[in-house]
Amino acid sequence: MTMTRVFDASREEVFRMTIDPALVPEWWGPSTLTTMVDTMDVRVGGKWRYVQHDAEGTEHAFHGAYLEVDPPGRLVYTFEYEGMPGDVMVETAVFEEVDGKTMMTVTDLFPSKEARDASLAAGMEAGARESMDRFARLLAARPR
Fold first, then answer.
1. pLDDT averaged over the chain?
2. Which of 69, 76, 100, 134 holds its CA 20 to 30 A away from the CA of 21?
3. Residue 90 predicted with pLDDT over 90
4. Which H, E and C letters describe the chain, residue by residue?
5. Rounded to whole angstroms, how far apart are CA atoms 100 and 111?
6. CA 144 vs CA 10, 24, 105, 114: distances in Å
């Protein structure tokens, strides 16, 4: 699965916002959930873990490990929803400068068609789209 979005900012700024643990809770995931960064060690071999809570307090946790970190052009990491253990995907984010803006292309490689279909059925596409919308709003609101 591949998602592409163009942001009106430099590659450096877009990349930096992607890996800033203070900013991730402001844009990652649906706005109906509260996101907390539990761990975020952005280096090859480093781990990450985000925990989300809904209005009823239900917890949704995600984790992975960084496989490639090449600022400001590329970030590759594993991604696993703890509610579906064993379905580990590899997510690759590529940041390209296009006419003074940044095109971010995110490709998700699932371990199987069934894992992909389950993630889509659980709302992954809508969550990713809302995350990118929130990211764009946060980016536009930041002082330049």
1. 94
2. 100
3. yes
4. CEEEEEECCCHHHHHHHHCCCCCHHHHCCCCCCEEEEEEECCCCCCEEEEEEECCCCCEEEEEEEEEEEECCCEEEEEEEECCCCCCCEEEEEEEEEECCEEEEEEEEECCCHHHHHHHHHCCHHHHHHHHHHHHHHHHHHCCC
5. 36
6. 11, 19, 23, 43
Domains defined along the chain, listed by start: 2-141 (3.30.530.20)
What pTM does this model have?
0.92
> pLDDT for 97-136, tens place per residue?
999 999 999 999 999 999 889 888 888 888 889 999 999 9
Between 106 and 143, where is the model more confident? 106
Nearest partner of 104 among 2, 25, 24, judged by Cα: 2
CA–CA distance, 75 with 36 (Å, rounded to integer): 21
Q: Which two tokens stand for residue 70?
A: 């090449």
Nearest CA to 107 among 125, 123, 90, 88? Answer: 90
